[in-house]
Amino acid sequence: MSTKKKIVVKIGSSLLANSDNLTLRYAFINGLLSDLAQLQTEGHDIILTSSGSVALGLNMVGKRPEEAGVLDKQAAAACGQPLLMNAYRQVASEYDLQVAQMLVTVEDMEESRRFLNIKNTMLRLFENDILPIINENDSVATRDLRVGDNDRLSAKVAQMVEADQLIILTSVEGLYDRDPSEADAKFIHEIEDVSEHLESTTGISALGSGGMLTKMHAANMAQNAGVETIIAEGIIERPVSSVLKNERRFTRCLVSGVTASPLKIWLSNRLQVSGTLVVSNEVAAGIVGRKQGVSRMDVISIQGDFTKGDVLHIYNEDGEEVARGLTNFSSEETMLMARHLDMPVEDVIGYKTKSDVVGAENILVLEENHLQLDAPEHDQKVVIPA
Ligand SMILES: Nc1ncnc2c1ncn2[C@@H]1O[C@H](COP(=O)(O)OP(=O)(O)O)[C@@H](O)[C@H]1O
Ligand SMILES: N[C@@H](CCC(=O)OP(=O)(O)O)C(=O)O
């Protein structure tokens, strides 16, 4: 028997649903669960992150994937999720495997108490030899508070349970240096630095939500957290154990020697960002050089409603995001402090403090950590200090 591992397996929509009639691929689920049941018997702890609810629910709401809007997809998710779980439960029972469903949102993953509840629930399910099946709660999550794709969700889960491996199963054998539909695309077996491959990955299948790009983002998050990611074809016999036993080709994203500090891992993997500070290019360069935080003198503009402890984007004047950091003040306090530079802080916000708006110790420079640059998608309230 191989050593016992904690493995997060992610299944994409393209594996679960036929792209033409949007029906469930029972044969795939059958092969997958037979494999997972065997691995569980061998002592491995497995978590399944499964997409498919939207694809499987679209027939009920009468839409094709290419024409469905956000509300259609949220309704489809509500229709498809029970179909998906019903199939998993039925097939699992044939292999004496017990399954449980967990639907989560970004807020659940990023709020400390809920994070702990999710983690503890998963650990308790492991103790009872029950396979947790996780999906984003699409019908509940709002547009700007979504994980957005299950690739990144699976990376967050892998980080949460300190998994040994994240195995992303999809419709292609792994990462190529360009879209594999292009002639001469070359297969990439091993990746040392995921960030170098973020650009080579555009184009998605009809059912998928992010294509290879979101898989690379997930691998990047996992790499920062010290978790190895494997991207492999799913429609194959024993899709997971054939990877563990190295019986076929796939892409392996190695764990780098240096794992970031827990604060930086947490900051880098955080999808929910509450606001933005814009600073001069000179200050931005100082931040990138790790010499300084953001003082009230440095703030050129503020966007978003945030409170102390929230994560902020830090942009330079050219509109490039250079860093992310934890703020020591609310948006209102920051605005007042930046607006009244001639007054002592105490007179402006009512208490004494020497803190920077964002301290250098709580800043993550994006360049260093190869982060995805998630700019806020929606228009936020913009406040320019007078
Ligand atoms: N560089 C690349 N390497 C591999 N696949 C790529 C690349 N660029 C684009 N793709 C496309 O990404 C698709 C996989 O993404 P997607 O269909 O969203 O998967 P899933 O539903 O499994 O999440 C593949 O079908 C492939 O055509
Ligand atoms: N939560 C959605 C899946 C979104 C998603 O990430 O899809 P995919 O890129 O196919 O893994 C669903 O269940 O349909």
Question: Overview of this structure, please?
Answer:
The chain is α/β, with parallel strands linked by helices and 386 residues long. The protein folds into two domains: 6-264, Carbamate kinase (3-Layer(aba) Sandwich), CATH 3.40.1160; 273-383, PUA domain (Archaeosine Trna-guanine Transglycosylase, Chain: A, domain 4). The protein is 35% helix and 18% strand. It is built from 14 helices and 14 strands. It has helices at 13-16, 26-41, 53-61, 70-94, 106-110, 112-127, 150-160, 211-224, 241-244, 262-268, 281-288, 331-339, 345-349, 366-369; strands spanning 6-11, 45-50, 98-104, 130-136, 165-170, 190-191, 228-233, 251-253, 275-279, 299-303, 311-315, 321-326, 363-365, 382-383. The strands form two sheets. The protein has an eight-stranded mixed β-sheet, sandwiched between helices. Strands 13-12-11-9-10-14 form a six-stranded mixed β-sheet, sandwiched between helices. A hairpin with a 5-residue loop joins strand 11 and strand 12. The longest helix is centred in the first third of the chain and has 25 residues, at 70-94. It is elongated. 44% of the residues are buried. The site of adenosine-5'-diphosphate (ADP) has 24 residues, from helix 1 and helix 8. Its EC number is 2.7.2.11. ATP binds at residues 10, 209-215. Residues 275-358 form the PUA domain. Pathway: Amino-acid biosynthesis; L-proline biosynthesis; L-glutamate 5-semialdehyde from L-glutamate: step 1/2. Catalyzes the transfer of a phosphate group to glutamate to form L-glutamate 5-phosphate.
